[in-house]
Structures are given as C-alpha cells and as structure tokens.
Write a structure and sequence with these properties.
mainly beta; 4-stranded antiparallel beta sheet; globular
Length: 525
C-alpha cells in the first residue's frame, strides 16, 4: 500500500504534467497540512528556519483536533518526512504565526500571538519562546499595554545574545522590544512604540543596526513630521532602542505610490536594503524596491502585474547567483493544466519569482494553483509567509491554503479530501551552495561569529576578506552545518570563505564588514 508521501508525489507529478519541464523538475510539494491533525494555514510572517544540522523548522498557527489545539511547530530533515509537534499547554505558546529564526547560540526562537500567563483581566498577550533539542519553552510572556503584546513575527538574537522583535497589536499599534537573556531566561529590557504594528522580523545590517518595516503609519525623518497617510514605514533601531525613521511610503495616491510593506527587508550584497510593498505601484499589484541604509536613493525596481503574481507579503532572499528571489500571494500566469477533478477549472494564487538587483531581468519561475472541483488538489495557494533560502541553494516555503496531499481517512471535517491546510514546498534554483553568518553582518577582530552551511566536518580553512584563520582554537565545528569562528587579526571586509576537502570553497553571498582589524581591537568592548 502506498504511503502518503508516495501518493503526494504521484499526484503532484500528474497535476504538473502539462507545465513546463523546468518548473516540473524544480518544484516539489513536501507536506500538505491537515488542520485537524497538523495545525494549518500559515499566514503573514511564518518564517522558516534552517537549524544547526541543516534541518528546517516552522510553525502552524491554526489549531484543530486534540493533538494540536493551539497550533503546532514542525521539523523537516531534508529529504525526509515532516514531524508535527502539537502545542497543547493552556499557559504555553498558542497560535504561533511567527515562524522561527535561528539564534547565534544555535537554538530556535519564535513568538506566539496568544498564550502565556493569564493577566488580571483574564487575557493572554502572547509569548516569546525557544526550541532546544525538540523541547519548547516560554522565554518571556507579554503582559499587554505599554509592555506590548500579540507578536506576529519571530525575534532575532543579536550578537549581544539578547532578543529583539516587534509586535502587532493592531494596524496602528505596535512595539519594538528587547528581551535580555540570562541563563536561558528572558526579561524585558526596553520596549518602545512604533507608528503601527509590524509582522516582519528585524534584520541586522552591516552598520550594526537593525532595520524593520511597519505596514501602516509613518515616522518623522530628519525632524520632519510624517505626512504619508498611513502608507507604512521603514525604520532603523539600535541595540540601545533608539528608533529612526528611514523612509515613509506615501498612501496619498495608492494606485500610483507603493504602500503596505508587510514583508521585511534584506540587505543585498551591494549594501542596499531590498523589500516589497503589497499594494500600489503602476499596476496596483505591489512593488519591489531598494533603498540605502540612510533612506536615500530609493527606487522601485519592479511593479507587479497579474502575470507576474501580485500582493507580495513575505520577505525576500538573495542567492549565491546574485539574484533576488521572492513570492507573491495572488494571481500569476499559468498555462493550461488538467487536474484530477477534471477540466481546466483551477485557481491561481501567487508565484515564485527572481530578478537581478536592477529589476531589468524579472522572471516568474512558478505559479501556484489549486482545483476548483472536488477533491481540490493542487500545488497549494496563497504563499503569504516568508520563504527560506537554504544554504544548499534550495528555496523552501509555505502556502496558506490548498495542497497536494490527501488528508488521512476520517480526519476532522475533511474526510479524505485534499487536506487544504497549506503546503510545505521546495523549489530547486540550481544556484551554488553557500555559507551565511547568523544574524550578523559585521564584527571586529576577536569576535566569535556563528556560520551555517554544509560540509563543515571537511573544512580545511576559513578566510575573512582573504585573511586566513591561523589558530586551530579559533574554529569550533559543532555539526556538519554549524561552526563558530573567531575573527582573526588582520581580517578585511570581504567575503567569508570556508575551504573544504576536494577544493570546495563555500563563501558568503555578501561582504562581511570588519569594523576593527588590528590587535588593539582585542581590547575594545
């Protein structure tokens, strides 16, 4: 008898049989979530994380049956089978829309919009949690009011070991916060209001500051009050909690101007920030933009229209090939397909795309679809969540709806139809494998940084901008996919290269900034 994974593979192969060979070869449905058994419906944020063993983890916000009453998190060993971990504690994390991020300490961190200790009014305001060796625990419970609550995005662990994140209490109420970590326990360090809620995780940039977005509101810039009609904002925040407005998105004419930056930003190899807006632009389908760290040189490099896919809500990725990759959550062109339900009746619901950093070479790579006829199979629909670019060069992502796999017999209200709780998928890009520094783009000599990649058991050397690590004690290999390295004296700004047996050199796709390179740096705080 065929197992669910085999059945899913056969269904996807049949459904894609009339799509181009390239798309058929590169897209794979890995798991269809059934809300009754698995949790379901990943939405905004829902970041996927690569762990220290190269495995992938994420969260499902919607609960269902007794095994997943408050949602779940899942584990996926690459090439293996998804394992579901239900959230069952009435005082623990609940409804985790955030997804997960990898910390510099090798643990996974996330946030839940509900759960935590009950306050005096009987409410819960969500938690920040961590996952260590397959066990989930609350790091900090939010208490509401000026202390914040309802985090939708996961925190990041900065080089100082503390956690930093944002909350979404409403479209016009949100906070940015610091949680001070000590022996695995978190306490609130500082918390400051934002002009609106945020569903995008912060990033660490090469200047040592963090950057984020709000999908509504605006901030003063250079002392000038915002007047953007709540179009959304890009902001900088220091580790000390100083917030600076970088750019405001203007909603005064949303059919022309770019607005609603639900997704976060990335820092490209050229030093610019890249992000998307989900509305506005020349075709009212959203835009892809780039801007300098100080807010200057803002430009829209692509206007999304129907065939491209529209309404990009997740974050972006930049590969070792230099291209920017991302997802849209609606529309997209697809050629004629015939699904099991019969006939060409299907919905289209988003795309995978890539472009160079000028926007001149935009390519739609894959269009998500789902049948309108029972049993409703397809690739999955509406990928709102932020995808992951694994250091192997493969993209992993989640759709909110649809899927390629049938639900277990008698599962909840679905009763054997296609599970329809969202699809976990992969897309092979063909790019070269690479290494990446965890939550950090700069350091000084003597700092120890965390690097993810593959093949580390076969490492023969590490260089920083061409300067080799010479001390055998400077490199600690924790797994084949995770190492920590002390920045050597004389290190230069440039790519970090991990040399491996057989001449395989894996480098960061970006330059890593060295803020101080002499021996005197060792004495600096």
């Amino acid at each position: 008898m065929l197992d669910r994974k085999t059945i899913r593979s056969l269904i996807v192969a049949l459904a894609l049989s009339t799509i181009s060979f390239a798309a058929r070869a590169q897209f794979a449905g890995l798991n269809t979530f059934d809300g009754w058994w698995d949790g379901s419906n990943p939405y905004y944020a829902d970041y996927l994380a690569q762990d220290i063993n190269g495995n992938i983890h994420g969260t499902m916000p919607a609960g269902g049956g007794s095994l997943v009453p408050y949602g779940s998190w899942f584990d996926y060993p690459v090439g293996g089978t998804v394992t579901i971990n239900g959230l069952t504690s009435p005082t623990g994390p609940q409804t985790p829309t955030s997804g997960l991020t990898l910390g510099i300490d090798g643990n996974l961190y996330g946030a839940s919009g509900k759960g935590g200790a009950t306050t005096g009014n009987g409410s819960t305001y969500g938690t920040v949690f961590k996952i260590v060796n397959g066990q989930i625990s609350t790091v900090y419970p939010f208490t509401g009011g000026a202390n914040g609550g309802y985090p939708w995005a996961p925190p990041i662990q900065a080089p100082d070991g503390n956690l930093y994140g944002v909350t979404w209490e409403s479209y016009l109420v949100g906070y940015v916060y610091q949680i001070v970590m000590s022996n695995g326990v978190g306490t609130l360090g500082w918390i400051h209001p934002l002009p609106a809620g945020s569903v995008a995780a912060l990033i660490m940039a090469s200047d040592g500051n963090m950057y984020g977005t709000t999908s509504y509101g605006g901030l003063p810039i250079n002392g000038v009050a915002q007047n953007n009609n709540n179009g959304g904002a890009l902001f900088q925040v220091t580790l000390g909690g100083v917030i600076t407005g970088i750019f405001n998105f203007d909603a005064t004419s949303n059919l022309i101007n770019e607005i609603r930056p639900y997704g976060g930003v990335i820092q490209g190899a050229d030093g610019y920030l890249y992000g998307t807006t989900s509305e506005g632009g020349a075709y009212a389908g959203g835009t892809l933009y780039r801007v300098a760290l100080n807010g200057s040189n803002f430009s829209v490099i692509h206007h999304f229209q129907f065939n491209d896919g529209t309404v990009p809500t997740g974050g972006l990725m930049q590969g070792s090939d230099g291209y920017i990759y991302g997802l849209t959550s609606a529309n997209g062109y697809i050629q004629q397909i015939v699904l099991k339900g019969g006939g060409p009746l299907f919905n289209v619901g988003g795309t995978i795309f890539k472009t160079d950093t000028t926007g001149a070479n935009f390519q739609r790579l894959f269009t998500f679809y789902g049948s309108k006829i029972s049993p409703y199979e397809g690739s999955g629909l509406y990928p709102y969540a932020t995808p992951l670019l694994h250091t192997s060069g493969t993209i992993y992502g989640l759709t909110m709806d649809g899927g390629s796999g049938p639900a277990p017999s008698g599962s909840g209200p679905c009763h054997g139809c296609y599970a329809n709780g969202g699809e976990f998928f992969s897309y092979g890009t063909g790019m070269a494998p690479f290494v990446s520094v965890v939550n950090q783009r700069n350091a000084k000599v003597g700092d120890r940084i965390s690097i993810i990649g593959q093949g580390f058991y076969n490492w023969t050397g590490v260089t920083f901008g061409g300067t080799a690590v010479t001390s055998k004690f400077a490199v600690q290999v924790w797994s084949d996919n995770f190492m920590t390295v002390a920045v050597p004296s004389g290190a230069k700004t440039g790519k970090i290269v991990v040399q491996e047996l057989g001449g395989a050199d894996l480098s960061t796709p970006y330059n890593f900034t060295i803020t101080c390179s002499g021996l005197l740096c060792l004495r600096l705080p």
